[in-house]
Amino acid sequence: MSARAAWRLESLGFERVYDYVPGKTDWFAAGLPREGEAASVPLAGDAAREVPACHFRQSPAAGISPHDDEDVACVAVNDEGVVLGLVRRDRLRAGLSVAVEEIMEPGPTTVRASEPLADLTKRMREAEVEHILVTDPEGRLIGLLRRGEAERLLRGRSSE
C-alpha cells in the first residue's frame, strides 16, 4: 500500500514523495514525530529523557560526574550509539581508571519508543522497576524513562 500511495502522489504532481518502506510501526518505534489520532496516545518515547552516553571502550572518567544523585551514571554504547550496557553511579566511583566495559552491566532491558506508556508504567510498577532505557529498532539509545516522570505525565493527561 505504501509504494502504491507514493506512486499515486507522484502522479498527482507531488515532487518530494518518499516511500518509508519499514512502515508506520517502525516510525513510531524510532520515536519519530506523529500526529493525528496516533499522537493522542502517550508512548515511552514521549517520556524518555536524555541520559549521558559513554563509549564502552573509553574511561568513564571523561565528562561524567560521579557525584550526581541519579542512579544511572551513563549508558554504554558502541560507535553507532547501540546500547551495550549500563553504568551505575556506585560502579562508576569504583572504576574511574578502567574501561566502561569492565564496570558496565551488560545487556540492560530496553523498550521501543512506541511502547504504550500506560501499559509500560503499570508493568514497571508491578516489577518495582524505577527506570528503563528506550531505544530505536536498531538498538540505538533514545533516552531513559523514569517511572515517576511517566506516572506524572499520565496523571496530567488524565486531568485534561
What does this structure look like?
This protein folds into two domains: 2-30, no CATH class; 44-158, CBS-domain, CATH 3.10.580. The protein is built from seven helices and seven strands. The chain starts with a helix and ends with a helix. It has helices spanning 2-11, 24-29, 44-47, 89-94, 100-103, 117-126, 147-158, and strands spanning 53-55, 72-77, 83-88, 105-106, 110-112, 131-135, 141-146. The radius of gyration is 19 Å and the shape is flat. It is α/β, with parallel strands linked by helices. The longest helix is centred in the C-terminal third of the chain and has 12 residues, at 147-158.
Number of helices: 7
Strand content: 15-25%
CATH topology of the largest domain: CBS-domain
Assign an overall shape. flat
Q: Distance between termini?
A: 36 Å
